[in-house]
Design a protein that fits this description.
3-stranded antiparallel sheet; globular; 114 residues; alpha+beta; 3 strands; 4 helices
């Protein structure tokens, strides 16, 4: 089962990044241990604040099948609250990203045809 988590600064409830992981503590250490080539703004924020970056579990017990959808809901909720997210793939009701399309195609291939 997966956890949906948010990264924030100690004593600050603003979520700056939303992600998902089976092992959230291990994933936090991965975030803290190095730069993120795919998301340099997030990497710079973490490097500047590494001693203050905390992880908050937003949802637990999420299945692999619904992980991406739960992550998108969390992103949209945070955006709706005005949180300034570093997520490279933003939640949107208007269009799908290439990653979203690939995820849906993988999911459809596993589904039983009508």
């Amino acid at each position: 089962m997966f956890y949906i988590y948010g990264l924030h600064l100690e004593n600050d409830e603003e979520i700056r990044y939303v992600g998902s992981s089976i092992h959230p503590h291990q994933r936090l250490w991965q975030h803290l241990s190095g730069a993120d080539d795919r998301n340099p703004e997030k990497g710079q924020w973490i490097a500047q604040n590494s001693g203050r970056v905390r992880m908050k579990i937003l949802q637990s017990g999420v299945s692999e099948k619904s992980r991406r959808e739960a992550e998108q809901r969390a992103i949209m909720e945070c955006q709706g609250k005005g949180h300034r997210l570093f997520n490279a793939r933003r939640a949107s009701r208007k269009c799908a990203t290439r990653e979203d399309v690939n995820w849906w195609l993988d999911r459809i291939e596993g589904d039983t045809p009508y």
